[in-house]
Amino acid sequence: MLSVISFNVDHGYLEGLVRGMKAGILTRADYHNLAQCDTLEDMKLHLQCTDYGKTLSSSEDDLTVSLVDSKLRENLVAEFSCLRSNALPPLSTFLDYITYSYMIDNVVMLITGALKQRDVAELLPRCHPLGAFDQMAAVGIARTPTELYSAVLVDTPLAQFFQDAVSESNLDEMEAEILRNKLFKAYLESFHSFCKNIGGATKDIMCPILEFEADRRAFIITVNSFGTDLSNAERSALYPACGRLHPEGLCLLGAAQDAAQVKDVADRYPAYKIIFEEPEPGSGFKTLEDRFFEQEVKLNTLAFLQQFHFGVFYSYIKLKEQESRNIVWIAECVTQRQKSKIHNYITIFQGTEQ
Amino acid sequence: MGSLLRGEEMCLAQLFLQSGSAYDCIVELGELGLVEFRDLNPNVNAFQRKHVNEIKKCEEMERILGYLLREVKKADISLPEGDVNPVAPLPKHVMAIMEQLQRLEVELGEVTRNKEKLQRNLLELTEYTHMLRISRSFVQKTSEREPLQVQYEEFPFLEKDTLMDYSSMQRLGAKLGFISGLIKRTKIEAFERMLWRVCKGYTILSYAEVEEYLEDPDTGEPTRSVVFLISYWGDQIGQKVKKICDCYHCHLYPYPSTNEERNDVVEGLRTRIQDLHTVLHRTEDYLKQVLMKASESVYTWVVQVKKMKAIYYILNLCSFDVTNKCLIAEVWCPVNDIPTLRRALEEGSRKSGATVPSFVNRIPTNDTPPTQIRTNKFTSGFQNIVDAYGVGNYREVNPAPFTIITFPFLFAVMFGDLGHGVIMALFALWMVLYENNRKLKNTRNEIWNTFFEGRYIILMMGLFSIYTGLIYNDCFSKSLNIFGSGWNVTAMFRAQVWKNADISGNRFLTLDPNVTGVFNGPYPLGIDPIWNLATNRLTFLNSYKMKMSVILGVIHMSFGVILSTYNHSHFRKKHNLYLVFLPELLFLLCLFGYLVFMIFYKWLVFTAKDSREAPSILIHFINMFLMQGDGVQPLYPGQIGLQVFLVVVAVLSVPVLLLGKPVYLYWLHNGGHRPGLYRGYERVRRNSEEELYLMRDHDMEEGSSHSDLSSSGDRQTDEFDFADEFLHQAIHTIEYCLGCVSNTASYLRLWALSLAHAQLSEVLWTMVMRVGLRMDTSLGILFLVPVFGLFAVLTVSILLVMEGLSAFLHALRLHWVEFQNKFYSGTGVKFCPFSFSLLPSSFEQYGLL
């Protein structure tokens, strides 16, 4: 149990640090200015006035969107590794948990890459550096999930999520996707129980976020499975069982056959009803994914309202990721001259001005 | 002095800069540092401004310069940070600099890339030689061990051929393969484990550590590596092994199949390594030459680029007139500097060869100008003390000139010790004498800089401490007997009060000043040294210092109140003089001024003879408030009457203070005549009527775009809200009246700290120095050396530094709170002129390193 009294002894510095970094998250006014830019150079100029400072200006090459993306990612990784290297248990474990989701994504990406006969050297730079691990490059060797587990991943922290995923079937793209979802299910459930064990404010903050994450996966899996040869039973096995949909909602989702039925399920839960509601014709159209992101941002900003808990670290990373997505989106729009769509970013903090 | 008391008179001026000569004019202004520019395009984004491309170019150059500096630093070439002050380059010369820089960058980049490539090559070759050398021993080892493993690995054909060499291995066909290479020491264990897991034991791994540290080309850190040799069976496993090697970033090198080949390769490698070494040396020499050449002019470039960037920032603040022929800038400028400003503009126009001159126009404004107080190296420290509390309002009385004396004095009252003062003054004097020393000036130690900036303050504090030390007669807690004590002990014997037996019989004897000859009048300067021997010294000094603190406090505060009259009369608020200043002063003087009077009265009237009848001032003061004096003897005739009168005056001044100003303003607002209230504005108007007229014409020509800006202040009408005014005055009244009591008490810190300082230095003397002096054998001389060392260290660290800081802090508080709240509002804005000299002046501060 983490008590409020002793929290600052071990984690006070890092919490202060992360709250300070949170103050650097771009506000509405910043986005407003960014959206007015005509070239990437302009964006660079504006980002110089923010906490990004010289992140973008240190390179000699011309700016491209992918360069912006990788620079922002580097920035995030630098911040995260600063936090991680200063963390003490149980915060260090918590931070490790954050990296596991990136690891899973990396593993699956490498598997699919290997299936398409891509070179590992070409794939590695595309892996998220937060989820990097030593054995990453060897993932391509494995042919079945069992082999993957026993040869490559057994030493990595991902091994604990493999209990359900071990199977002898050959890895193909479908199988890789299933593997990803199985791993994520195990990961989310494990992370959820870990946060629950920590208790206190961490539990209060993190559990809703993780429950939302689990439900989001369940919805997305269901929606994406329509039109594939994934059976309902197989599908149900992929749903993370720590969300709010568990157990009734998941049963209903498992039985759903088309998008309308999914919407029916969502309607039973007020929190998800808003997300699935058809947007009004006048307002800008947003994809389901965007609306989920919006909800996630809302949940994550709540984390900063309480003190003495680990949720701020998770939320900060997720918000910063969303910010990178926003900047990259604006950069894309700027380079492709799609000014009409430029406002489809998700504002994180409203900021003090305006 | 006038400027230091009030600050400079400022005016808003418009600069009309011909677009051709604008750059040169700004250069001149930047060198002089006369004016503060106002932003005329506050609504324009940073990247939509006029000169954003030039700024980008400057940033590009800065980036290259940063790269250059890093390379120069890496090569360990010293950077000359000369005193040269190159002028900002002309726009036409910028391209030359830019080209030079770009050429340098390309050249450097090529050379460093080459160098890196060569180094990488060299590393590979060295690794290869290590591998060959070390793996030779593997073969010998494996051949000895072979029989054992062979059975284990179930390779039956190897059994027959126990003494293996490579020719025999080759005979076994292509199925047996070798992979060899280097891997980082830290990864070998995981590597081995994974190899075993993936290949299920169909491999043999042998490895040995390289004794040398090899430099990692990516991080440049020396790391330990391990040479390994994997022998595997079968092609499929071979592929897996290769993949695993890739994944662990192993450096793989071909494994020679025969001994002869191995020797050939080793030979070849040796010559190539030698060749590479020479090439590498040449490259490094060349690189050094290039960097040396660059390092000579890099400082000039850095300064030039900084200046240029600053100029374009300023140009971005200006607005264009309609015809695009001239730039309009609005600046705050001290009125006295306007001629200099004109000359600077003329100079700028002349330099650029413009036909139409640039010119200055004063424009009227109601905006509050920024506060500019000219300081020199002596006054700037004191001004900083004041500014740290708050920058004064425009033309408000500046406490800094008074602080120059009062601050060191109040400090010294708390720090009064002759010896400590001398040390402090000498230290400050040393800093003052060597203030032009570059090493002292340019140090980056922040603590040192703080002391150095305040060297004149410290000097004054030291000198004043010497003075108060003389008054307290304290020198390292001992007293100096310069003039001879005014007390005489033998007189006690002469008068037959004491006998010889008394001395042996008593530990303490009291001198009686009433006996003739014992007390021969006061010591000429300060406290009589005989008190240093007296046991009741503390009681005596406490009474003296406490009274002194109250006296100093009341004087200091009254002075603050009196200073407020300068503000009232300057801002043409004469009513404040009668309705605020007078009741405030009466309140303070009638209560605490009277207390001071009583202290002096008691000191002067009562002598040693009638000291038994000396009254307690405290009782009298309390009685004054209770309005009863029946029980005690009055100090002087008519005391009760006077006291009642004073209390009544003090009490009556409170409602005047509370109600006077709001009521008067209310009356004024509702139709009362305003005696000269707006004379200030009118004067400004008349001064610039002509200009105003001109400006209106101008405005009409160019539309109303910037007339909005300059006339926005005019529309403000003075709205009057009685409740608001009353509330403010009520708060002020309460604060002042309570403040008088608490602030007077607050001055007692002078007594407390001076007591603490004296006691601490006495403790240090008795606990350390006296112990050393008590040793009376000749060994004591040796013993005295470390004891004195300890005494000196403790004196400096505790008494000078620590006590000094604490006394400084309390003196600061007395000025900020007790003194300045009587007259100083400190809500102004500091005038920060555009000046090149304010740009950071070392590479680290440029943010390039």
From TrEMBL, chain A:
InterPro entries in the record: ATPase_csu/dsu_sf, ATPase_V0-cplx_csu/dsu, ATPase_V0-cplx_dsu, V-type_ATPase_csu/dsu, V-type_ATPase_csu/dsu_dom_3
GO CC annotations, alphabetized: endosome; proton-transporting V-type ATPase, V0 domain
Top-rank taxon, per record: Eukaryota
Keywords, comma-separated and alphabetical: Hydrogen ion transport, Ion transport, Transport
Any one GO molecular-function label of the UniProt entry: proton-transporting ATPase activity, rotational mechanism
Record-linked Gene3D superfamilies: ATP synthase (C/AC39) subunit, domain 3 (1.10.132.50), V-type ATP synthase subunit C domain (1.20.1690.10)
Subunit structure comment from the entry: V-ATPase is a heteromultimeric enzyme made up of two complexes: the ATP-hydrolytic V1 complex and the proton translocation V0 complex. The V1 complex consists of three catalytic AB heterodimers that form a heterohexamer, three peripheral stalks each consisting of EG heterodimers, one central rotor including subunits D and F, and the regulatory subunits C and H. The proton translocation complex V0 consists of the proton transport subunit a, a ring of proteolipid subunits c9c'', rotary subunit d, subunits e and f, and the accessory subunits ATP6AP1/Ac45 and ATP6AP2/PRR.
Function: Subunit of the V0 complex of vacuolar(H+)-ATPase (V-ATPase), a multisubunit enzyme composed of a peripheral complex (V1) that hydrolyzes ATP and a membrane integral complex (V0) that translocates protons. V-ATPase is responsible for acidifying and maintaining the pH of intracellular compartments and in some cell types, is targeted to the plasma membrane, where it is responsible for acidifying the extracellular environment. May play a role in coupling of proton transport and ATP hydrolysis. Regulator of osteoclast fusion and bone formation.
Membership in a protein family: Belongs to the V-ATPase V0D/AC39 subunit family.
This protein's name: V-type proton ATPase subunit
UniProtKB/TrEMBL annotation, chain B:
InterPro entries reported in the protein's UniProt record: V-ATPase_116kDa_su, V-type_ATPase_116kDa_su_euka
Keywords noted in UniProt: Coiled coil, Hydrogen ion transport, Ion transport, Membrane, Transmembrane, Transmembrane helix, Transport
Protein function: Essential component of the vacuolar proton pump (V-ATPase), a multimeric enzyme that catalyzes the translocation of protons across the membranes. Required for assembly and activity of the V-ATPase.
Pfam families the record matches: V_ATPase_I
Organism domain of life: Eukaryota
Coiled-coil portions: 94-128
GO molecular function: ATPase binding; proton-transporting ATPase activity, rotational mechanism
Name of the protein in question: V-type proton ATPase subunit a
GO biological process, alphabetically ordered: vacuolar acidification
Recorded family membership: Belongs to the V-ATPase 116 kDa subunit family.
Membrane-topology annotation of the record: Multi-pass membrane protein
Compartment annotation: Membrane
Residues passing through the membrane, by range: 409-433, 454-472, 548-566, 578-601, 640-660, 779-802
